[in-house]
C-alpha cells in the first residue's frame, strides 16, 4: 500500500506509474490525464469526509453538465449510466453536488474544470462557522456566543469540503487535458437533434481508492493490527511543526516556567486548505498574516537589539489551525505539562495577525474576547494593547477600530490560550463581523485575489523588484504591527519612528509564497540540499501528515531565521554542529545555527555560503489526542488523512453493453470449442497420429 506525499510528486508518482512497462496497445486505447487534483478522505473522532473510488477505480460515460436543469439526464433519463460528470466551476455548487450525491447510483464521479479567473460571486467550501466546537466559545464558556450564534464569520461557506462523497471528484486545469476530454465528449457523446448518442461512447476512469473508513478511532485501531513484518497503515494523523523565535535568547533546554520572563506572543497561522488535495494557495487567509508578521519581525530586529524592551516578543507560527487548532492546542498542552521552554504564567499578552489584506478604503479591526474582559486586569491590558495599535497607526495609511465589545473573537489560535486561562489578547483582521475574504479556504484564495500580478514580459528577477499595490498596503500593516508589539513589550515609544517594514522584503516574500518559491532571493536563504524543494509554483499551505516534508513550515523557518538572526563568522562544520567553535558547548542551548548557500558574486557561479545564528526553533504540531490515545475526544483535534493507492485518471472509448456481451459470448464459445476439439484430438491421438509399421526384413 502506498501513500503519496504532500508534495506534488506524490500525485505524479501515482499518476505516472502506469507508464512502467506500458505498451503501444495501451497507448492506443487510453489517454491518461496529466494534471489532476483529487478530493481525498479525511477522518476525525465522529465521521469521515472527502471522496473515494472503488479499488480498481470508477468508470462512467462522460457527460458535460451545461446547467442545473441538465441534471435530469444524469440522474434519471440518460440511457447509459453510470455517468462521469464534467462541469464548469460555476456549477460546482452545494445544490448541484448534493443532488449528484443523492443520485450516486447513476454517478461514477465528477470532474471540475478549474477556471483561469476567479468567480466574481465568491466561493468557500469551508463551513460558515470555522472550527466550531474546538474554540473557546462553548456552552460552558458562554452559550450565547457558541456555534456562531452572535456572528457568522464565513457567510459564503457552503460546507462542501466537510461532506462525504462515495465517488471520486477531481479538478483539472482548463488546458490540453480539458480540451481532449471535451473533444472526446463532442465526438462521441453529445446528443444530436435530440437523438441519443450511439456507441462507441467516450468514458473516463478515475481512481482514488482510500484505505481508511468510518472515523479516526477505527483507522488507528486498524493501524495497530499487524499481520506481517511490514504492516500497512490505513491513516496518519495530520500535523507538522510550529515555528517560533524569541526577540532575545532563551534557554530551550530547560522546560517549564522561567522566572522573571514575560513574553508577548505575536502569532499567525501557517496552513490553509481547499476542497481538492494539493491546492491550498491560502493567499489572504494564510499568506497575508505570515508575510505581515515576518516583515514586522524583520522591522523589529534592530530596535530590539539596540533598545531592548522589558518583555520578550515571541514570534509564533502555528501549523494545522484549519483542522481544529492543531498547532496552538499542542503548544498550550506543552506549556501546561512543562514540555515547552515557557509556561502559561510567562505569557503577558497575545497579538494575533489574521487576514490583513486591505484595500485603500478599508481598515483593520481589533477583536477581543468579551468574556475574559470581565476580568478587570485583563480588560486593562486589552485596552492598553488596543490603544497601542491605534497610536501605532498614526502617520500610516491604515485605520484601526474596534467592533462592538460584546462581539466574540473570530476563529483564531488565541482561542486555545483562552481555553486554558484568561489572557489579554487582540486578533487583528480586515473584517468587522464577517470575513471579507470571498474565497476563504478555497482554490481561488490566490495571488489573483490579492492583486499580486506582474507584467508578462518581466523576468523573475524583474518581478522581484516590481511592487504591486498589495505590497504597499501589507508593508503599512507590518509597520503597524511591529510598532504595536514594541510598545506592548515595554519598549520606548521614542524608537517607533525607527521601526518601519521594508517593502522589498514584503514583495520578495509575497512572490515566494504566491507566485514561485524557486527564485534567486529565496535560494540565498536556504541550505544547498533544500534548493531542490523550491518549486516553480505557488506554495501549497495544506498541513499534510507528520511523516512528510511540509513546504510552508520549512520556508517560514528559513525566512524567520534570516529576518531575525545575524550572520556569524564561523566555519560550515561548526555551524552545522551548532557551535561557534570547537570548545563551545553552550550556544546550542540559546541559538540555532543554519548554514545557507548565499548568493554567487558577480562573474562567478560559486555561491558564498554563510552561517545564520538565530533563536528560531521548531516544536511539534501534532494534536495531544494522539499522544494521549484519546481518538474520540472533543477536547483536541482528531483529524487524520487516509492512506491511498496511486491516483490516476484516463479516458477511452467503450462499446455498448450488447456488443460487450456478444464479444464475451463469442469468446466463451471459441474457448469451449477449442476445449472440446483438444479433448477429441487427445483421445484419438493414437489413430490420428499413428503410422504403419515397416517390415522387419525389408530390403532396399
UniProtKB/TrEMBL annotation:
Residues crossing the lipid bilayer are 661-681
In which broad location class does this protein mainly occur, judging by the first location in its UniProt entry? membrane
Q: Which InterPro entries match?
A: Ncstrn_small (IPR041084), Nicastrin (IPR008710)
- Nicastrin small lobe domain location: 38-212
Keyword annotations from UniProtKB, A to Z: Glycoprotein, Membrane, Notch signaling pathway, Signal, Transmembrane, Transmembrane helix
Q: Name one GO cellular component term.
A: plasma membrane
Membrane topology, as annotated: Single-pass type I membrane protein
Entry's family note = Belongs to the nicastrin family.
Q: What is this protein called?
A: Nicastrin
- Native organism is Gouania willdenowi
Q: Which gene encodes it?
A: ncstn
Amino acid at each position: 500500500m502506498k501513500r503519496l506525499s504532500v508534495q506534488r510528486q506524490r500525485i505524479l508518482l501515482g499518476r505516472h506509474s502506469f507508464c512502467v512497462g506500458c505498451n503501444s496497445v495501451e497507448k492506443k486505447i487510453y489517454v491518461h490525464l496529466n494534471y489532476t487534483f483529487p478530493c481525498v478522505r479525511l477522518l476525525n473522532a465522529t465521521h469521515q469526509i472527502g471522496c473515494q473510488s472503488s479499488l480498481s477505480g470508477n468508470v462512467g460515460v462522460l457527460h458535460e453538465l451545461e446547467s442545473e436543469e441538465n441534471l435530469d439526464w444524469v440522474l434519471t433519463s440518460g440511457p447509459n449510466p453510470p455517468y462521469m460528470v464534467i462541469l464548469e466551476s460555476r456549477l460546482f455548487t452545494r445544490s448541484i453536488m448534493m443532488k449528484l450525491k443523492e443520485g450516486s447510483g447513476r454517478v461514477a464521479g465528477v470532474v471540475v474544470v478549474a477556471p483561469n479567473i476567479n468567480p466574481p460571486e465568491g466561493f468557500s467550501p469551508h463551513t460558515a462557522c470555522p472550527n466550531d466546537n474546538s474554540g473557546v466559545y462553548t456552552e460552558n464558556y458562554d452559550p450565547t456566543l457558541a456555534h456562531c450564534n452572535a456572528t457568522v464569520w464565513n457567510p459564503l461557506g457552503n460546507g462542501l469540503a466537510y461532506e462525504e462523497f462515495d465517488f471520486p471528484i477531481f479538478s483539472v486545469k482548463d488546458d490540453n487535458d480539458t480540451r481532449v476530454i471535451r473533444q472526446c465528449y463532442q465526438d462521441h457523446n453529445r446528443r444530436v437533434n435530440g437523438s441519443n448518442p450511439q456507441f462507441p461512447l467516450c468514458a473516463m476512469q478515475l481512481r482514488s481508492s482510500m484505505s481508511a473508513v468510518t472515523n479516526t478511532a477505527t483507522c488507528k485501531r486498524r493501524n495497530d493490527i499487524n499481520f506481517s513484518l511490514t504492516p500497512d497503515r490505513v491513516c496518519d494523523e495530520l500535523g507538522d511543526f510550529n515555528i517560533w523565535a524569541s526577540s532575545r535568547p532563551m534557554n530551550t533546554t530547560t522546560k517549564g516556567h522561567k522566572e522573571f520572563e514575560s513574553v508577548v506572543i505575536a502569532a499567525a497561522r501557517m496552513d490553509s486548505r481547499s476542497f481538492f488535495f494539493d491546492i491550498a494557495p491560502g493567499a489572504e487567509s494564510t499568506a497575508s498574516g505570515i508575510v505581515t508578521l515576518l516583515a514586522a519581525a524583520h522591522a523589529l530586529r534592530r530596535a530590539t537589539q539596540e533598545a531592548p524592551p522589558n518583555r520578550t516578543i515571541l514570534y509564533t507560527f502555528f501549523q494545522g489551525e484549519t483542522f481544529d487548532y492543531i498547532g496552538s492546542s499542542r503548544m498550550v498542552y506543552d506549556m501546561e505539562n512543562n514540555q515547552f521552554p515557557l509556561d502559561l504564567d510567562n505569557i503577558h499578552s497575545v497579538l494575533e495577525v489574521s487576514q490583513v489584506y486591505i484595500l485603500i478604503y478599508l481598515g483593520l479591526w481589533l477583536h477581543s474576547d468579551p468574556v475574559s474582559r470581565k476580568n478587570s486586569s485583563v480588560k486593562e491590558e486589552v485596552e492598553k494593547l488596543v490603544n497601542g495599535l491605534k497610536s501605532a497607526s498614526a502617520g500610516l495609511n491604515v485605520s484601526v477600530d474596534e467592533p462592538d465589545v460584546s462581539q466574540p473573537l473570530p476563529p483564531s489560535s488565541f482561542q486555545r490560550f483562552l481555553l486554558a486561562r484568561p489572557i489579554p489578547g487582540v486578533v487583528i483582521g480586515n473584517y468587522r463581523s464577517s470575513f471579507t475574504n470571498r474565497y476563504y479556504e478555497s482554490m481561488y484564495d490566490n495571488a489573483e485575489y490579492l492583486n499580486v500580478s506582474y507584467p508578462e514580459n518581466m523576468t523573475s528577477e524583474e518581478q522581484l523588484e516590481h511592487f504591486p499595490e498589495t505590497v504597499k498596503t501589507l508593508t503599512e500593516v507590518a509597520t503597524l504591527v511591529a510598532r504595536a508589539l514594541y510598545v506592548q513589550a515595554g519598549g520606548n515609544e521614542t524608537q517607533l519612528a525607527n521601526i518601519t517594514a521594508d517593502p522589498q522584503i514584503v514583495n520578495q516574500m509575497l512572490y515566494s509564497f504566491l507566485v514561485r518559491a524557486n527564485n534567486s532571493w529565496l535560494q540565498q536563504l536556504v541550505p544547498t540540499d533544500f534548493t531542490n524543494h523550491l518549486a516553480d509554483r505557488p506554495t501549497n499551505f495544506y498541513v499534510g501528515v507528520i511523516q512528510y516534508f511540509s513546504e510552508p513550515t520549512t520556508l517560514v523557518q528559513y525566512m524567520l531565521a534570516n529576518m531575525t538572526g545575524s550572520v556569524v563568522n564561523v566555519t560550515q562544520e561548526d555551524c552545522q554542529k551548532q557551535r561557534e567553535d570547537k570548545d563551545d558547548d553552550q550556544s546550542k542551548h540559546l541559538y540555532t545555527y543554519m548554514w545557507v548557500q548565499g548568493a554567487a558574486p558577480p562573474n562567478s557561479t560559486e555561491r558564498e555560503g554563510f552561517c545564520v545564528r538565530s533563536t528560531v526553533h521548531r516544536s511539534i504540531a501534532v494534536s495531544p489526542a494522539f499522544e494521549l490515545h484519546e481518538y474520540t475526544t472533543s477536547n483536541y483535534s482528531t483529524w487524520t488523512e487516509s492512506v491511498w493507492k496511486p491516483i490516476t485518471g484516463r479516458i477511452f472509448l467503450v462499446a455498448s453493453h450488447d456488443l460487450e456481451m456478444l464479444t464475451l459470448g463469442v469468446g466463451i464459445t471459441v474457448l469451449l470449442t477449442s476445449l472440446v476439439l483438444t479433448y477429441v484430438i487427445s483421445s484419438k491421438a493414437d489413430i490420428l497420429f499413428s503410422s504403419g509399421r515397416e517390415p522387419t526384413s525389408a530390403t532396399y
